[in-house]
Amino acid sequence: MSDPIAARPTPDRAGIRVICNDHSGRNSREAEAIDRAMKVLGPEAELRHVKGRDIAGAAQAAVGEGVGTVVAAGGDGTIMAVASALRGSGCALGILPLGTFNFFARGYGIPEDPESAARVIAAGHRRKVDLGAVNGQLFLNNASIGVYPAILKERETVYRRWGRRRIAAHWSVLKTFWRFRRPLKVEIEIEGQRRRFRTPLVFAARSAFQLEHFGLQGADCIRDGKFSVFVAPNEGRMGLLSDALRLAVRQMRLGEDFELICTDRLTIHLRRAQQLVACDGEKFTMRGPLEFEMIRDAFEVIVPEEAKDKVQPGGRAA
Questions:
Q1: Dihedral (C-alpha) 127, 130, 133, 136: value to the nearest 10 degrees?
Q2: What pTM was estimated for this model as a whole?
């Protein structure tokens, strides 16, 4: 194998800083994978193990120190935290996937094996990406209100007991759906027009790969640089359980199981002053109204060479 090369820096930036979510890199298998990845990246790469709450700060510090490439080693939540710090900085984002689903990385063809992903970073092929934002908070794959933040809360409990496994994640969905009782009363405003909904879930998607993975419509809307917004009908917990089963077998029905709205900007007006919002698996308490907008060319991500000029599952061509 040829000697690794540093990811291409901007003229005033150089070097690689790998920020590893301490939670993601705990077990011996992941630690070994990170070690192999660091050998690929070479001596210009520096590894920092960081607690989840400190990831954004560590990425901001790397930007301030003139680092050329900041690598997120973890799941989509870790990537989101690093990406938010890189917006408009001139730093490139590299990804070493260590999460449960890795939708963002998979959408851009980045290997899930960290050593293979490190070779992509070493090659340094960049492309600009569009991201979504809600009240200024960037997100990679999705942002939502209603039952999904409750699922994330339950998932934390299940993970603590059973570990970070995909079957545990699916179980947390079913468990939360069975317990969920109170739908939201919202008004969704698009181009000055408001519509009222009583719904258990409003889900704004930005990953075409994620939608296609679950057999959902809306991928073309995302490729056009917009949000695919799913609004679930208020059918009670049995309806939610039924929807979960249809989602599992990829048989969700447009117009029956959800309404789909395609837009690049929307406002959600709430009855309450504050609302729990889920962004890429992380929870945030935000004041209403919730303003969703597209952030064009938010930053550059390092991707495989064959992906740098293609229309990706997350958005427009570079």
A1: 60
A2: 0.81
